[in-house]
């Protein structure tokens, strides 16, 4: 059995509080138990093993925690939503949007890009997401971009310019403004405050 226990400071040190509220297994009216298959349990064990080995690197820990939570959300959907013959239209939109964002957030940050692929208007897409997750489409895209930015900035072998380029920004100053608007500090300031591991920047 795997149990998650979170203290309040995880919101401050790792993630935006809104992100946790968007995870359905944290909602008070939802079941918080997820039955794992053998393969799923093994996948989680590997992630927790990795988490233990990097426990002294806060920003790297954030990346693994993010993976654990997103995978847990996927398992939750498969278990509790999968009991239905099919998702309702809005639930299906939420799932497809999250899949699209996870694959395209670096190259496409415009809500219209995702709305077009889901065959709905940007306004209606955001209305659905706010209803089901508490976050607008723009906030979801921003969250993915900035969490990846923090992860990449934690490596001292990557410059701010390289991080900006990898995240699809052609102008470093634009990336810096976006990061400061999200986190309250410049990428260079954030980079100077983290442990900055030397290992490769490829995500685990």
TrEMBL record:
Residues 95-193 form the HTH araC/xylS-type domain. One of its GO terms (molecular function) is DNA-binding transcription factor activity. Keywords: DNA-binding, Transcription, Transcription regulation. It comes from the Bacteria. SUPFAM superfamilies: Homeodomain-like (SSF46689). Pfam families: HTH_18. This is HTH araC/xylS-type domain-containing protein. It comes from Sphingobacterium gobiense.
